[in-house]
Amino acid sequence: MNRIKEVLEEKGIKQIWLAEKLEKSYNMVNSYAQNRRQPSLEDLYKIAEILNVNPKELLYDQIIDKDE
Q1: pTM of the predicted structure, to 2 decimals
Q2: Average pLDDT, rounded, for the chain
Q3: How many Cα atoms are found within 13 Å in the side-chain-facing hemisphere of 2?
Q4: What transmembrane ranges does the database entry give (predicted)?
Q5: What's domain 4-58's architecture?
Q6: 3-state SS of the chain?
């Protein structure tokens, strides 16, 4: 699970802008943001660089227990 959508919202950045900067399709970036697909580590680092954040900020720091 990633926090790409939350970080984009915090920064007021649109997914389509990130897709252009990342040179990926909007659909691919949207699937990352919706957690339907996870970016490769290489893409995660590129996203962090583009958004000027630490890559760790794009990841949840703990596993969410769905039973709770």
Answers
A1: 0.86
A2: 92
A3: 26
A4: none
A5: Orthogonal Bundle (1.10)
A6: CECHHHHHHHHCCCHHHHHHHHCCCHHHHHHHHCCCCCCCHHHHHHHHHHHCCCHHHHECCCCCCCCC
